[in-house]
Amino acid sequence: MLRPLRLLAFAAATLLPAVAGHAAPTRPQDVVQAEVLPGWRQADGSHVAALRLTLADQWKTYWRAPGDAGIPPSFDWRGSENLADVKLHWPTPHVFELNGMRTVGYTRELILPLEIRAQNADQPISLRSHVMLGVCRDICVPVDLRIEALLPMTKQPDPAIRAALASGPLDADTAGVKSVACRVEMIPDGLRVTASFQAPPLGGRELAVFETPDPSVWVSESDTRRDGHGVTATADLVPPPGETLALERSRLRITLIGDTGAVDILGCPAN
């Protein structure tokens, strides 16, 4: 029988002092509620499940690339049984602006689909994970949780997970992105990358988020500008002190986020 998500441990200090006129939550469980949606087994033997986070009013959590003021999420799947690999499918996030800083994430609810490859496709999967998340209102704090769930062998899809999968960024070809190119310059502590491409407008004040395969590389918030269908975005990439950065153009990821959606661009050749 399926065991719903168990919150084995929340480790966080007092989350937020009282704000004048507002009663602020002081316990992690008042800020975020979590559960596993068990999902279904696909014909190829992989399993689709999801982590659902429900956030208190005015609180938010972060996307995989949260921005300078955000807290990046982390997932440790050690301890799981019959699990070979997990791929996260992030829904399209929102861009938040506060005091001149922009962060990227979600409010109210996040359903994060998990595409799981089993070691033995004919057996159930016992999912165990240590998850570190940032949650934010007036200040940002880390929330530590541990989850357990037994994923059944059912083949009946979950409409909520399917909707979350469909809400992710469009790939570049589907979105009609063209003429992608990057210019790379040396700066004293790393590289400055300027990407240019053609893409339909996504509404609002768009933001291009740069990501490298190496999470230790610091990436600045980009200067993103649009002229008609043309987009130009510049960001600095800085490796840890004492290290050099060898940019893998084919693995550089740029996500353009606007009010009406997002576009995922993988790879950025030279001009």
TrEMBL record:
Domain of life: Bacteria
Pfam families named in the record: DsbD_N
Domain Thiol:disulfide interchange protein DsbD N-terminal residues, every copy: 35-150
Record-given protein name: Thiol:disulfide interchange protein DsbD N-terminal domain-containing protein
